[in-house]
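Appendix C reproduces, verbatim, an entry submitted by the partner laboratory led by Prof. M.T., so that reviewers can inspect both the input and the predicted structure.
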Amino acid sequence: MTVRPLFGGPIGPLLALLTLMSLPRSVLAQASMIDVGGYNLEYRLHGTDGPVVIFLNGGAAPMGYWSQVADGLTNHARILTYERAGHGRSEMGREPRHGANVADELRALLSALHLPGPYFLVAHSAGCLYARIFVSRFSQSVGGVLLIEPGDKPFLDAFGTKHLSGLEHRQWEDLWERTWSRLAQGGDAYGMEVRAKEETLGQIQGSLFPPEVPLTVVSAVDNSRPDWFLAELSPGSIEEFYRRKVAFHEDLARASLEGQQVTAHGAPHAVHEEQPELVIRLILEGMAGRGGGVGSPDPSDTELSDRAFGLVLRRGMGECRSPAVDNRTARSTHRRAGG
């Protein structure tokens, strides 16, 4: 049997070049390994010499799932995506795998790469837990935070106890008991992180989000495609869940003097994969700074790449807001002294 080359023939080199040009720049950026104190972490660093934007993965997701957002920012920032210890090609780090160790690990990575702050953190799902701990421990090096769909076990437990009854309540408790048990039994790094979740939650509860750090919290709401764990609930209970989730995120945003909650209608849990243009806009706005940000160029001078879906972001242009987005500002009840 003859095996033909993927890009053979006289136009093969041209096809290969066109294929490479069509790939996101974040994918083309070479993944590297670096020692952070006795073990190596896998990371990608690309973009300009501007402010550093750090992406924290949710759950067991790979760093590549940020590619659409990262690619839209390469002309405006230095982009750092990485795999937590034990994920991807990263070697296992310090145990237990609770949030404080994960945050210290990220700090060690930034030090090893000689990347100065202030940083802009973008986190999704479980990654939001680690971002919150990092900010509380290293607030002086953080210029802004974007949390996409943060959640935690206490919120899920409270929703079942307070807002569900009868069969729905029993199904909810059974679902999450089986889910947490299955995840915790995993022999991989994520299983170790799930087993350490109580310590991670305790670390969050024992610390305060620094009110001077700008914070945006993004909530996904899609009644037509509810999250998998809502499948057994009635339409009314699903609507109630989304209402309570948005309220929970509004409360998180109030921890910052410059906090806001943004609802992404029609988006799934991984908002950044279906609505990357929204996430890009919020990052650029955050860097330009409702409070000085992290030294980004003014968005009025900025146009995003074609891969950012042609969205043009200019300060003050209301038509740039996605029609699927409902901005709900949740200003903090904190006030500056004398303010």
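The CA atoms of residues 22 and 275 lie 20 Å apart. Additional entries are available on request from the coordinating office.
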